[in-house]
Design brief:
Layout: H1 9-12, H2 17-30, E1 35-36, H3 37-47, H4 49-52, H5 64-75, E2 79-80, E3 86-89, H6 91-106
Antiparallel strand pairs: 1-3, 2-3
Helix pairs in contact: 2-3, 2-5, 2-6
Length: 110
């Protein structure tokens, strides 16, 4: 598995925000943690701080960066859930998350 703190910044900055969110959600599920909006925000920020930080406060996550992508991922059938409940990957989402994981492991550009 990809080490969560060893993803190359140059690699993840080239990935789509949707793929980064799917990967973070996959990691939470692998850790057997429920993916509330707050936990997912934290995981995205921990894994990909340059993408999910506030523009003027780099040490804080920006929840607005998850809002629209989460709705899009739900509309595409990759996830279920809402900010008021918990998020889960669908089978289609798991398949995509596994591909993203493999790309990170191999150092491929997404």
């Amino acid at each position: 598995m990809v080490k969560k703190d060893k993803i190359d910044e140059e690699l993840y900055k080239k990935a789509s925000i949707n793929d980064l969110i799917l990967f973070a959600l996959f990691m939470l599920e692998e850790e057997e943690k429920e993916a509330s909006f707050e936990k997912l925000t934290k995981k995205c920020f921990e894994l990909f701080p340059k993408v999910f930080a506030l523009s003027d406060r780099q040490k804080w996550p920006d929840t607005r960066k998850l809002d629209r992508p989460l709705r899009a991922l739900r509309n595409y059938g990759f996830i279920t859930g809402s900010p008021q409940s918990i998020f889960k990957l669908t089978q289609k989402g798991k398949k995509r998350a596994l591909k993203i994981t493999e790309d990170f492991r191999q150092g491929k550009l997404l």
